Amino acid sequence: MLVAVYVISAFVSGSWVKFVQIALFLAASMLAVRTGKLSRRVALLALAATVSSSAVALFLVVAFSAGPGAGVGYLLMAVVLSFAAVLVLYRVLAPQNDVTLQSIWGAVSVYMIIGMMFAALFAAINEFGGGAFFADGQPANLKTFQYFSFTTLTTLGYGDFTAAGSGGRAVAVMEALFGQVFLATLVARLVAAYRDPRRPSNGDSGGPQ
C-alpha cells in the first residue's frame, strides 16, 4: 500500500491524486491501529482521531491549493503518518514478540512512512513560508517533495534538489540523521536477531534421533 502511494503520486497527475493519497494514508493508519494490540476503547479513540484528522487534512489540501490552509492540511497528514509509524514500531519492538520476517517488513514500512511524513512536513513548510522552498527555482510540488524526502532519508543526496531556506535545511538534516540511525540500529538489529523458523536451532542437528 505504501509503495502504491508513492508510485501513484510520482507518475500520475491530477487533483484527485491528493484524495487517493490521503485515503491510502488513512487506510495504512487504520491497519496500524487494528494490529497495534490496543485495548478496544483506545483503538476506537485512535480510529476516530485518525479518521477525523484525515478528513480535515483532505478538505484543507483540496480546498486550499496553496497558502496556510493547505499547510495545516499537510501538517495533519504528517501527524497521521507519524501516529501510524509509532503504532507499527510499538508492535515490532514489543518485548514479547520474536523477530520474524513480518517484523522486518514492519520496520521497512515504518521507514517508508517516515519518508512520506517528512515529505508532508516539507510541503507544509513550503506553504507557510513566503519564498521558494527549493534553490535554483526548482518546482515545489508533491512529487518533488517525496523525491527530496527519500533522497534525504537515505542520505543519497543527488544534489539536484536542495532546500533554500534555513527551516527546510534544518528539517532535512534531522531526516538524514534519523534515517541513518533507524537503519544502522533498529533494522540492523532486527535482521541480526532474525532466525528462519525452517532452520533447525543450534541444539537440533536436523538429523534422525
Q: Class in CATH?
A: Mainly Alpha
Q: Compute the CA-based radius of gyration.
A: 19 Å
Total discrete domains = 1
Number of strands: 0
CATH architecture: Orthogonal Bundle
Overall pLDDT score: 82
Q: Helicity, in percent? A: 55-70%
What composes the largest sheet?
none
> What pattern of helices and strands is seen along the backbone?
HHHHHHH
- Low-pLDDT stretches are none
Give me some keywords for this one:
209 residues, mainly alpha, Helix Hairpins, 70% helix, globular
Q: What do these coordinates show?
A:
By secondary structure, this protein is an all-alpha fold. It has one domain: Helix Hairpins. The protein has seven helices and no strands. The protein has helices at residues 2-11, 16-34, 40-63, 68-92, 101-128, 142-153, 166-193. Helix 1 (2-11) crosses helix 6 (142-153) and helix 2 packs antiparallel against helix 3. The relative contact order is 0.10. The model has no long low-confidence stretch (mean pLDDT 82).
